[in-house]
Structures are given as C-alpha cells and as structure tokens.
Amino acid sequence: MIALGILLVLVLLLVVFGLLFRLQILTSIFSGSLTREIGMSNRVNAILMIIFMVVGGGAFAWSFIDNYDKMNPPIASIHGYAVENMFWTTMIILGVAFALTHLMLFIFSYRYQHKEGRRAFFFSHNNKIEIIWTLIPAIVMASLVFAGWKEWTKITGPAPKDSIVLEIMGKQFNWLVRYPGRDQKLGVVNYRLIDATNEFGFDLNDNNAMDDFTVNEIHVPKGHPVLLKIRSRDVLHGVYMPNFRVQMYAVPGMPTKFWFTPTKTTDEMRAQLGNPKFNYELACSQVCGRGHFAMKATIVVDEPDDYVAWFAQQKSFAEQNPDVLASFKQKSDKLVKDKAADAAAVLTQTTKASL
Amino acid sequence: MAANIPTNAPVHGTPTVPHVEHDEHLHHDEHHEQSFLTKYIFSQDHKVIAKQFLITGIFWAIMGGALSSLFRLQLGWPESTMSWLTPVLGKWVEAGKLNPEFYLALVTMHGTIMVFFVLTAGLSGTFSNFLIPLQVGARDMASGFMNMLSYWFFFISSIIMFSSIFIETGPASAGWTIYPPLSALPQAIPGSGAGMTLWLVSMALFIISQLLGGVNYITTVINLRTRGMSMGKLPLTIWSFFLTAILGLLAFPVLFSAALLLIFDRSFGTSFFLSDIYIAGQALNNTGGSPILFQHLFWFLGHPEVYIVIMPAMGMVSEILATNSRKPIFGYRAMIGSLIGISLLSFVVWAHHMFVTGMNPFLGSVFMFLTLIIAVPSGVKVFNWLATLWRGNIRFTTAMLFSIGFVSLFISGGLTGIILGNAALDIQMHNTYFVVAHFHLVMGSSAFFGLFAGVYHWFPKMFGRMLDEKLGYVHFWLTFIGVYLVFMPMHYVGIAGFPRRYYAWTGFDSFSQFADLNKFISAAAIFAFIGQFIFIFNFFYSIWRGRRATENPWNSNTLEWTTPVIPGHGNWPGAIPAVHRWPYDYSKPGAEKDFIPQNVPYSQTQSSNLPNERETAE
C-alpha cells in the first residue's frame, strides 16, 4: 500500500515536472529567447561559475579543516613520521596547484564570457610559455620522485639484523600469528599439513618448529625493529596497520615482508589520545570475501621489558598440542621405514640393471 | 558495402592537394530504400552504430549508477534495515541486512559496468564511430560490416554480463580487477562460481568487440581522410580517438590472455595463478603459480585502459572548449604531442597499482619514476585548456559547461595521482578510499563529463534536434555539485585509512569516526544519481520533440557540420568536401565571421590569411 502511494506521488511529480517543462518552453518561445543566439543564461552561468568557486572553495576549506584532526591516524612508527611529512608537503604543493588552476579556470570563464561585438584573441601557440609550463611541473615532479624514492628504498631495504621476527598468515577471515620461539628461527610449515588444530601447517619434524608459538594478539616491543613475514593460505589479503604506516599484501605461495620500528607503546598512545580503549588495529586491505570487512587483529606495543616477560610466558605449539606432535612422530617413523623399503627396492633394481 | 552504392563521379573543382586515395567517386544513395532491420538493427552505417552504442551505454550507466546507490545505502546507514528492498533483491537481503557477499558483487559489477561497458564502449564506441568518418571526411568506416559486428559482439557481451546478475550464486564478486585466487575459487566466494564464468565469457566477447572497432577506427583515420586532410589538420577529437584505438588494440589482447589463463586455472586444473592453497578444509594440488602474475597481466591492460577512457574525453573537450571560446585551441601541436606522450607512457606505468603486493621494491622505484613523468603531459594539457579560455569570447552551451567541469575534475583528481604514484606514500594510501576518490574524479567523473559534453555538443548532428539548454544547465550544475560533494569528503575518509570494498566500517575504531561523513557521501551520491534522470528525460524527449537544429548550430569549423541537418547514409549528398586548413581558425583577425570552416580554401579568405598561408592561396 505504501509502495503504491510512493509510486503515485512519483508519477504525479513527473507529470508536474513535465507540465512545468512545457510551460517553460512555451514562455521562452513567446519571449523569443529561443531565437536569440546568446541570451541571458550565458551571463547567469558565468556568475554561477564564480559563485561555485567561492562557495565550493570555502566549503571545501572549511570541511577540510574541520576533519583534519580526524583524518590523521596517530603515528607510531619511525618511518611513519617521515612518510607523514612527505604526504603533507606534497599535499601543500598540490594544494597550490589546485588553487591556482581553479582560480584561472573559473575567473577566465567569468571574465571572458561572451560580449556582443568583442572578438576572441587569436592566440594559437607560444613556444616560450609552453616550454616554461612543461619544465616547471617536470622539475617539481623530479624532486618529488627523488624524495619518494629515497624514502621508499629506506623503508623497503633489508631489515636490521637484530629485528624481532614474527609471521602473520592471512586466512578467510582472520589473521594467524606465530613467533619463532627461543631459537629465533621460524620452523618449516607446509600448507598440506594444515588441519583444524594445526592451522599453520607446522611441520614438527623440523626442529626449528618445535618452540614456535602462536598467539591471538600481536605483541611487539617499543623502539625495536620488527620484521613481519607475511603469508596467506587461501586468497590474497592485505596486512594494513594504519598507525604504523604499514601495508603489504599476503600472497598465497609467495611470502612477503615488511619491517618497521614502533615508537609508542599502546599505553603511551592511550594516554596521548585520552582514550583508554585505544588499540593499534590491523585491517585487511585486499578484498578476500564475505568477512573481508571484519578481518581484524590487535597489536600491542609493550615496553621492551614487558615484551620479554610476555615472550617468556608463551607455550610452544608443540607443547600445547601433544597429540599433533605424537602423530608427527608416528608418521615420520613410518616414513623412515617406507624410505628404507624404497631404498632397498631401488637398490635391487639398480643391481638388476647393472647385471 | 561500397559495392552497392551507384558510382556517380562528381568532380569538385581541381584537387589542390592530392593526398590520399579515397572513394571520391562514391555517391550517396538516398533513393536506396532499406528495410527497418538493416537500417536500425543490423545497420552498417557508422552513425546508427554510434547511436546503438550510446543507447546501450545509457542503459548500462543507469544500471551502474543504481548498483552504486544500493551499496552507498549500505555504507551510509549500516545499522538500518534493508527489508524494503526485498522485492528487488530477493534472497540477497537476509533478515533485513544486505548479504556481505552480494555487497561485493554490487561493487564488482558497478566497476565492471562503468569502466568497460559505459566509459569504454559507451564513450569510445559512440563518438569514435560517430565522429571519425564525419570529421575526417569519409562516407563511412573502412569496414561497415566489421563495425556492425563490433556492436553486436558488445551487445551479446552485455546480455551475458546482465544475465549474470540474476543467477543463483550471484554475479562475479572479486572486485572489478578479479584478482585470483579469490576469482578462481568458488569455495572462496560464491560469486566466483558461474557468475565469474559468465564474467570471463562476457569480457572475452567484449574484447573481440573492442578489437573489431579499434582496427576499424585506425584504418579509417589512416586511409579514408578526405583530400587535404593531412594528419596535421585533424581535429584533436580524431587524434584522441586514433591513439585510444591503438592503445586498445595493444592492451586488450593482454587482458584476453589473462582471462584465458584464469579460465584454464578455474576449469582445467592448471596453476598459472594458484599456489599453496588450503581452503574449505582442503589443500589444493596447485603449486608454482603466482597471483602477482595475474596482476601484471591485468594492469598491463588496466592502466592503458584508464587512458582509453579519458583520452576520447580529452579530445572532445579540446574541440568543445575551442569552439565555444571562439578561439583556436592553444598549442595544437603540444596537445597532439602530449596525447602521444600519454599514450606511450601509459604502457610503462602499470605496476604503480602493485607497489605493496610484494613485488620487488626496485621495480617499485622504476614504476614510481615513470608514473610521475606521466603527470607532465597531463599538466601541459590542463595549461593549454586554460590558455584556450583566456581572452576568449565564451558561450556557455551545456557542452561548454561540461567541458569546463571536465577540466576542473581532471585537475582535482589528477593531482592526487601524484600522491598515489609515489611508492612511499602509497604504502599508506593503497586500497583506501583515497584511491577510490582519486580515480572516480580523474577517470570516472571526468570521462562522464566528457561523455555528457559530447552528447550535448553532437546531439544536433545525431538526431537533427537540439537538447533543451535550460534542462541541460540544471543537469550540469546538479551533477557538478553532486560529484564534488561525493568525492571531496571521500578523500578525508581515505587519508584516515578506511579500506575500500568494506561492507561496514563499524568493526574498527580507526574508521568508525566517519559515520556522519559516510552518510553525507551516500546522500550526495544518491542525489547526484537521481539528477541524471533529468538528462535521460531531456535526451529521449528531444530525440522526438526537441527544437529543430540547423546544419551548424555552434558555428563550428569541423567537417561534420558541412553535412545536412540529418546526414544520410554516405554522409554528404554530393562530393566529400576537401580540406584546406586546420580546424581551429576561430576569431581569426581580418576574417569576416569568427569562424572559418576547414573546407574553405585560403583563396576565399585573402583578408585573414597569415603570411605563411598566402602562398598556399595562390
């Protein structure tokens, strides 16, 4: 019933609109404005251009300033500050170009609106100014490229040797995190070994994997470089941590990495923002399916001492899942036997062949 | 097609500049009756095919806009119920909420439809078809038959893509960039089942349509120019269509190969893009493939594609700005040079879409360098447009308003490209709404404005009637304001890091602070979408009941305005006019009127000839 009512109103509105349109055409025929080549509307549009520039420009400036505080995620990494600086420096350069070109666009539109009896200036080209306005952007671009390239090589360069290493693996639709344990070596994993308990696909035949542990919440120490090793076990995901200015895809079959140095603990950030509920968040930035928008993890930045204490508390995956460990023992025993049998078979074959 | 036209060799003066061999002897056949079917449906006339592309494009644009309104409803009011949409969406509304997978399907189809079906086929298809023969002075395209095939391949492709929206498992949902493995595995998202298959089939047909069209455009521009129409006298529209067609011809086959390999991975068990995958409780056998390879192939098309979208708009805007400023386009040669520069560079910047995909950082440096170079020719174009307005005598036709709007949007969107092309800054901005805002301004809205400008400008030649100017003004101002209201605030959300393709932002503290802004953007988007129906009304009303047009309503110089009000099959009833001058002799000092059409020889304009033109006149 309501739908019918809405439909009726819409139809009536359309009819009214149609009638008004007819009326407008008839009056303009009557007033002869259709025969005039350039009428009043030319002037109206020219004025609207100026109004648009002033009101639109003002509204843009106001809303930008109004939202400025909200739009900068508080920074908590060393390269984050450098990137942030470069971002706003570039934005200022762009802002100047934006303002100048738009001033010209709208003021020219207004200033050079049609006037009876005036003739446009026949001005087909001028090599000198064309060279100038090719070179100036080229120089500005070159300096932006150079600054960007320097920062980019610094950020993507090799991680310091003493970095804390941890691995993030994306899956539909959450993040799995593992640490290398006391030996500081991440053990071998194999996607074919994944099941409901062994979500990472740990290969517990590898000694390095024995003390690896998994956690739900990422912990990193303040002031220490952290190397993220990133993998995915199903589709593409994106590790995105806006506060640290970190982003890197998680690609199935191709491990990726990103390193950064956190500069503020979670507690410090909470105090700074006056928000006791603040947490560093990790979001998925590459569309991965139904739960893409909810693929969230939390990162806790600790004081180095707290981090060490936290690290010491963690129990390895093998320790927590003795049955998985046991099944690996069994399988590997069997494998050894099979291999021995295979080797024997090969041996007999080769002996036969050599005969 | 040429064979059935009676020859009637008219000799029109003595050829002063014998240039290319062309079908001067062909004569227009008005008496040759055609059935409805061959005249309007399976037509080989480039003008009818152009209209077919335009109307199909309009259909798709409404579709694409409607889809975006749906997902903007979700983003603006994530908490409210959607059950009132159940009559339209059926099972995709679950307990009053939009299904998140269907949300992704909406986003995917919106992107696919807008980029390929509206702004590639609808824009290039319409205006390359309509304007190339008319502006170079040809009876029709080089091959009318291939041209017809181009449209019908597009039509079948459209039908398939449209039908995919209604299937049980939903249309493709992996984003318009269809990155595997998500697009390869139906276990990952239902849209990657039959929906994705239809997407790939449709896109393969679409590519065939593009290639058939592109070969025709290129051949026509090279071979069928009229007497005197050297490459240096072509209107900028033709230059842009010509280069666009070349880009399409070189880039689209690469997408075809990517689609083909993806079809193999999906259906025949190969591992081009798949490796080490455990999904739905099962480890897949695929190893050794690379999802990044797909991205390289995709963006090798994908980046030239954005120039395929924007260059025709640039060409038309150049033409319209010059005509309505009553001034020559400033720096004609620089405009051609920058188009060529953009075309070349567009092939070597694709990996700036992939800075943070795990690609070697050194490659990132190279692509950052090449990407920021492309800003230079784009900048030259903007300055030249501004210089064209300077000291003009501007008539604000609706087409002119949209052209000025185009320049504004192109600047606003283009500038943020400098941020995104900088790899170090892209770390933070990649896949956020900053990117969405950037490309919707610079290629989405700008190209749309180019399309509107073109329709308003060439409508009289298409249908012999004028579009209503007043409605045009209302349409322009609503759209111009609407577009800025949508996309300017979107930058703020993006700088704050809100990732794109998110069904809701409520789960994250960092992003949920923009609830009001998201509501505002949604309202503005729906408002701007509804505003487009003014245009739809104006368009269809004016086809039948608009004010009758004259031959050359805008006092323009190019050849299409020398044809009758409604050009018939063959375009000129008599001989094809010869061309003597460039297309931008507006307000030439000493000339009688403020425009001198291209077909007027210098001998008739002694008073306005420049020193170097005097010799040609003798």
What gross morphology of chain A would you assign? elongated
Work out the strand percent of chain B: under 5%
CATH class descriptor name of chain B: Mainly Alpha
Helical residues, percent of chain A:
40-55%
Succession of helices and strands of chain A: HHHHEEEEEEEEHEEHHH
Tell me the count of domains of chain B: 1
Largest sheet, strands/sense/barrel of chain A: 5 strands, mixed
Oligomer: heterodimer
Total DSSP helices of chain B: 17
Q: Numbering strands along the chain, what is their spatial order in the largest sheet of chain B?
A: 1-2
Q: What Rg of chain B is obtained from the alpha carbons, in whole angstroms?
A: 25 Å
| CATH level-3 fold name of chain B | Cytochrome C Oxidase, Chain A
Largest sheet of chain B: 2 strands, antiparallel
In the predicted model, the low-confidence regions of chain A spanning at least 5 consecutive residues are: none
Measured distance between first and last alpha carbons of chain A: 94 Å
* Total beta-strand segments of chain A: 10
Can you tag this structure with a few keywords?
heterodimer; A: 355 residues; alpha+beta; Immunoglobulin-like; 2 domains; five-stranded mixed sheet; 15% strand; elongated; B: 618 residues; mainly alpha; Cytochrome C Oxidase, Chain A; two-stranded antiparallel ribbon; 17 helices; 4 strands; disordered N terminus
Structural topology:
The complex is a heterodimer of chains A (355) and B (618).
Chain A: H1 2-31, H2 40-71, H3 78-111, H4 127-156, E1 164-171, E2 174-179, E3 213-215, E4 218-221, E5 226-232, E6 237-241, E7 246-250, E8 256-260, H5 266-273, E9 280-284, E10 297-302, H6 304-313, H7 317-320, H8 322-354
Parallel strand pairs in A: 1-5, 4-10
Antiparallel strand pairs in A: 1-2, 2-3, 5-8, 6-7, 6-9, 9-10
Chain B: H1 36-41, H2 46-76, H3 86-89, E1 93-94, E2 97-98, H4 100-136, H5 144-164, H6 194-223, H7 236-267, E3 278-279, E4 282-283, H8 291-325, H9 332-345, H10 361-373, H11 375-389, H12 398-420, H13 423-429, H14 433-463, H15 469-495, H16 515-545, H17 611-617
Antiparallel strand pairs in B: 1-2, 3-4
Helix pairs in contact in B: 2-4, 2-5, 2-16, 4-5, 4-6, 4-7, 4-8, 4-14, 5-6, 6-7, 7-8, 7-9, 8-12, 8-14, 9-11, 11-12, 12-14, 12-15, 14-15, 15-16
